[in-house]
Amino acid sequence: MKRLPLALLAAALIAGPAAAQTPAGAGLAAGALAARDKALSDTTGWDVVESLTTEVGARPVGSPAMQRARDWGVAKLKQLGFENVHVESFTTSAWSRGPESAEVVGPFPQKLAILGIGGSSPTPAGGITAPIALFTSYQAMLDQPVGALKGKIAVVTQAMARTQDGSSYGSVGVQRRAGPVEAAKRGAVGYLIRSLSTDDTRLPHTGAGSPGGIPAAALSTVDASLLERMVARGKPVIVHLEMASSVNPAAEAWNIVGEIRGREAADEVIVVGGHLDSWDPGTGAIDDGVGVAIATASARLAGQMGKPRRTIRVVMWGSEEQSGSGEAYAAAHKTEAAKIIVAGESDSGSGRIWTLSTPPAAYGHPAMVAFRATLPALKVAFNGAPPRFGGSDIAGLMGFKVPFVDFNQDASRYFDLHHSADDTLDKIDPADVAQNVAVWSAFLYVVANSDVDFRPKP
Predict the structure, then answer these.
(1) 335 Cβ contact list (under 8 Å, min separation 6)
(2) How far is CA 131 from the centre of its chain?
(3) How many CB atoms lie within 10 A of CB 171?
(4) How far apart are CA 375 and CA 36, in angstroms?
(5) Could you say which of 22, 117, 129, 402 is the most buried, measured as most Cβ atoms within 10 Å of its Cβ?
(6) Domain end: 236, 260, 279, which one?
(7) How far apart, in whole angstroms, are the C-alpha atoms of residue 188 and residue 130?
(8) Using an 8 Å Cβ cutoff, are 268 and 262 in contact?
(9) SS3 308
(10) What's the CA gap between 304 and 312, in Å, rounded?
(11) Number of domains in the chain
């Protein structure tokens, strides 16, 4: 499995010097290096995320703040010189949080720090009080037969590992996404999980889950450990849970779009973006205000290198956390899918890009040779394997066979902050933002100013 990507990479590198020596290749190489170097001293990315988090803050779908974010996005794109700035409306289900509390009422009374999982049902008035059934792994709960958890609050305390590529989130995420449904199937009256987080604070981390008809919440990591220690003492642990929430099944939402129009092949489009919506505890800085900022700043900078041959389109997707924006965008742009050259999304925080993948069909093209030459100075490794996943909001385009890229950011600290009250601007290093913008702007420049085709040849 390892030999094929290495062989592909070797072939691309062999083709590289010859391709770079052509006039077109030399021009692309010079432009890509210039875009990279300019980005490293450009503050647009930082300025955009600072503006968004200061002037709007948290942006849950269906909230007045999301309406302000829509207006902010339109104004910001116009201010930065984008063309064809417009709003594409759609409807989606929006879950909203109300007052929440949890506490151990016996045998060791203590408050617990929780955040409701998106899609959770509210408790009845006055809340619920029930013994817990604690499982140190999600599989252990799944192994329980139907009815085994009747009248109990199921608690899963499986921990998430810290990884540079964020893969551990994918491996344990199912306990939040599907856990409420599975607990309800087994008779549980409530569901609590250890937050999908790598932190050691008493701040819980929220996120979307499948509605199971029961109240469901995430515990802070330290409170999950607290419950484990209580259960180990051999006495039944009783928890009181009060949660309020509401659901708008047809909330209005928006994708905000702006373009740097192409001079020759304007109907050939590069789509790049981040998601504008966020969860409510923090200010949506790393998830995904900074992704919006990186995409916007990169497109602007690539366009400043001279009017591009192709159109660069920035999309601020409006409902990623509770889903809907990617599907709406793909449906609205289905007829132009064949003209979308490539798509990409920045949605892994502000950590530096450390490795990336591009579609193999274009490895030897002068544009990709020029782009790869910009990477060593940025400490980015080119991965010869095909990209695996480009982001939730471009998944619909991927379904229409639109080529995509996968720019992997260092996620070592991302899940300390993600979906929590700690997702705030002060956690972002402007130099890290500039490195991301440097990678993306070099890529956008070479693709927008060439005829590179990422689709496999027949």
Answers:
(1) none
(2) 36
(3) 12
(4) 9
(5) 117
(6) 236
(7) 10
(8) yes
(9) coil
(10) 12
(11) 2
Does position 401 have pLDDT exceeding 80, yes or no? yes
For residue 381, list its beta bridge partners: 355
Average pLDDT over residues 72-78: 98
Question: Please, what sign has the CA dihedral across residues 184, 190, 193, 195?
Answer: positive
pLDDT band at residue 12 using 50, 70 and 90 as cut-offs: very low
| pTM exceeding the 0.90 threshold for the entire prediction | yes
Same domain, 41 and 128: no
Quote the mean pLDDT of the chain.
Answer: 94
Q: Residue 230 is part of a domain; what is its CATH number?
A: 3.50.30.30
- How far is residue 8 CA from its own chain's centroid? 29
Of the residues 169, 201, 236, the one at which a domain ends? 236
* Residue 259 is among the residues annotated as catalytic for this protein: no
CATH assignment of the domain containing 382: 3.40.630.10
> How many Å apart are CA 458 and CA 453, to the nearest integer?
13
- The residue-averaged pLDDT of 305-317 equals 97
Residue type, 450: S
Q: For 156, list phi and psi in degrees, rounded to 5.
A: -115, 125
Question: Same structural domain for residues 436 and 298?
Answer: yes
Residue 457 is predicted with a pLDDT of 87
Task: Determine which one of 320, 321, 327, 336 is catalytic.
Answer: 320
Distances, alpha carbon 431 to alpha carbons 40, 99, 434, in Å: 8, 38, 5
How is 357-418 classified by DSSP, letter by letter?
A: E--GGGTTSHHHHHHHHTSGGGT-EEP-SPP----GGGHHHHHTT--B-EEEE--TTHHHHT
How far apart, in whole angstroms, are the C-alpha atoms of residue 217 and residue 114?
A: 6
Range of the domain at 317: 3-93+250-448
Whether residue 21 has pLDDT greater than 60: no
- Over residues 384-398, mean pLDDT: 95
Tell me the pLDDT band of 458, cut-offs 50, 70 and 90: confident
Residues written for the chain: 458
pLDDT at residue 23, rounded to an integer: 62
The total of other beta-carbon atoms located within 10 Å of residue 86's CB is: 12
Which of 50, 74, 47 is CA-nearest to residue 318?
74
* C-alpha pair distances (Å), 199 with each of 15, 153, 154, 161, 240: 45, 24, 23, 10, 25
Beta strands 110-112 and 83-106, pairing class: antiparallel
**DSSP assignment letter at 285:** I
Tokens of 77: 């794109």
Integer Cα distance of 449 and 52 in angstroms = 30
Half-sphere exposure at residue 429, Cβ-oriented, CA atoms within 13 angstroms: 10
Asked if the model's pLDDT at residue 268 lies above 70, the reply is yes
The pair phi, psi for residue 154, each rounded to 5°, is: -75, 135
Residue entry with tokens 């509390």 = 101
